[in-house]
Amino acid sequence: MPPRKGPYICGIDAALDVVSGKWKGLVLWELHAHGTRRFAELRRALPGVSEKMLTQHLRQMEEDDLIHRKVYAEVPPKVEYTLTETGAALNEALQPLGEWGRDRIRRGRLEVVGDPDTSASPTS
User: Is the pTM of this model over 0.90?
Assistant: First the structure.
């Protein structure tokens, strides 16, 4: 998969290119809220994501330096994912969007999985 390099119209276009897709923002949230996660932990935390889609998003996020993938030489194989500084900065930049989303949930009385007010993440 070729890296995304524009051309971009503006900074928002470039940022949305990196976080496009339903699961990337949620992966950022999960790693921010819980730190290091293994693949199966991420998959369990994101109901509805397929193994193929999660793998694709994780690869893209690694290419974009949002997450770090650490492979341990063990049997069975062990792989852990953590946020990079770039990923943490993006997560922080998404905080206002998360606040807007929480307001939308409250205004529209929309259904939420779990309790959004208990999350430590700025994008919850």
Answer: no
